[in-house]
Amino acid sequence: MTECIQLAGGKVHDPANGIDGDIRDLYLEQGRIVETPSSKPRKIDVSGMVVMPGGVDIHCHIAGPKVNLARKLQPEDHRRDPHPGTEHTRSGAGGTVPSTFATGYRYATLGYTTAMEAAVPPIGARHVIEEFHDTPVIDKGFYVLLGNNIFLQQLIKAGRKEEFRHAVAWWINATKAYTAKLVNPGGDEPWKGKKNSNVKNIDEKSDAIEVSPRQVIESFIETVNDLGLPHPPHIHCNNLGHSGNFETTLETMKTAGDKRVHLAHIQFHSYAGEPGKNPKSASRQIAEYVNEHPNITCDVGQVMFGKSTIMTADAPLAYMLRGFKKAKWVNADTECESGCGIVPFSYQEHVYVHALQWAIGLELFLLSKDPWRIVLSTDHPNGGSFMSYPKLIRLLMDREFRREEIKRVNQKAINGTILNELDREYTLNEIAIITRAGPARALNLKNKGHLGPGADADITIYDEMDDKEAMFNAPRYVVKSGEVIIEDHEFRQDYYGKFLHTEPGYDESIVSEVRPFFENYYSIEFANYAVNDSYLHDHEVIPTV
Amino acid sequence: MAIFLKQIATPDVPMEADNITPARFAGQTPAGVEKLAVMHGSEPRRIGDFFSVSGQFDGTINVEGDHLGRVKLIGAGMSRGVIQVDGDVGEHLGAAMSGGEIRVNGNATDWVGPEMSGGRIEIHGNAGHMVGSAYRGAAMGMTGGEIIIHGNARNEAGNAMRNGVIAIGGNSGDFTGVNMLSGSIFVLGELGIRTGAGMKRGSIVSMKEATLLPTFSYSCTYRPGYMTLYLLHLSQIFAVAEEYLEGSYKRYCGDSVELNRGEVLLYAG
Fold first, then answer.
1. Global confidence as pTM
2. Which of A63, A266, A388, A487 is 20 to 30 A from A105 via CA?
């Protein structure tokens, strides 16, 4: 039985409950926050420290076949960054794509207690869940890639809405996913059929599938909202990284009407300029649209300078990026449901495009009017490692630091943005929103991202410092489900968090439609495809809404 | 007087002794050196558990023993001073070193001087695979310095090397200079197969005939001016026949699947 704990005298930042830096005591019992403890609690004095809910990463790539391929592709990245074990924790390797154990522990050392793997082909679900079993401390779930699924596209083409709905629900259940992810919807299949082929705008019907990206996006937004999945469709729009793509992004958002939708790493989709030429910033147009439409949530996908690893289900994008560096890369086909590309990359201050991407990300943060709907992310490890979150927080909270950093990057890029004119500084409460309360709300995780009675006792306690990077880099205490995992900056015990998934209802008869498609076109047996329930231990089913 | 490390216990499993460097020994008494950490498998131990330490540090370390083949990473990352090893030494000798000198009276095994950037390693016996090479996944091997092997070296000597010299008195194995970016490799004996596969720039010299990949093409036979200078330097280290100094060399350029700016020079008499 977990002990009863009193966190005494901390400055609590719990924006979901309207608490902004008030001095309060918190009581934890049985893994939850309670109003009054049933027995005498162990008292931990946290006076003078900042108390926040545990961080929630809404979009990262931390487990599965593509992540593992990226690990195998870069032994040099691991060798330079060993992650030693401690008395309580296991060892691992770091770099931009850390090993499973290092991923869990490193998230914990930043005060993050929940992370969502953002792109898993259904056929990789089993692999992901197995890696999750070896990813300590954090609670985790994943989004399943359905946007380039041939079977589903055929249903859309035939206008069979009811069957489509059941099929999506079947796939969510079969893979134990959290929601549907669309990556370059409709773009992978033409790419697989013909070299360098991709869809250029969302109304283009490719020869390969005869369904436009807009039809795919519409169908998923409608269906996922109908099914009441806790998180709306998580969309990586078409044309990622191409100049002038902001119009595609706006069109995608318009397609949603007033239905819930989440736009992933929106920074990569906020470029003006002519296709094929240098991009320009379109952050104002994008931020304005997001500000005016409360149905939309997004994460930024900030670029941070230094080494990163591009990993995406957007295979044509990886092909384009591999041309810049001419070093090792991976491109892969994932049967009838997705593609994959991996390119080791590094963002450099002096490069126009990289500096512009960095600036656009910051502009989006600073122009956003509702912190509840914009989430801090670097699309780990695409824009940079999650280990750079503390620096990003400092860039947002400290105007002077931001000015100094702006001076160090390509000035031609900065001159094309309004970053120098933006004086906004995020407050601690706003940071608590964009890293915790906001993503928890966007994910409909009712027990996370806040510190009210009944919430999961996932809590991070920081020493208050002027240097916000140092502050967020090293929380003094991290509590996960009521267990003190990190105390005085050191691991005091190991802990295995829960696996989060959802189970929408569907009509079993859809299986008889999916099965023949499998038997004709897949390399594995239908019976071996769905992840069976033996994988579900230490899990939590998040109810549909 | 130098400091002496005499092996008194044989490690059951390979041990990692990256603390055996002049920089770590500087200012230490023998008792202080004995306390320095080594890893014995996954177990942290001390140098004193495996070596008796005597003498006084003056910039030179003498390591002696019959089972040094189980001691890895001697001189790793060193930047100055001298390490003299008497016996057969273990893997990763002088890994990523930037200066100083390592001399081995005996054989070395795999990974001699990987990714070194400066300094000198001299092996009086044979060496294993991957001399002066890049670690797996890395883009660049040795970027400077000099590695002298009196005997033979095995496969992939100079893998992805970016600069510096590797001189091998005997034969070298397969894939000598694979993925080489620049720098020079001299092999007085025979080359194995697939020499210079994927090389972009750089020179590989051999005094014997060799079978080259079809992606290497013959360009000319000539007397490279620098050859005399290099070989004169090498002749102070090991025996180099007089005729090599003044001889002609057949030049092959390659690898044409890459930049085609590299060269393999074979002695033509």
1. 0.91
2. A266
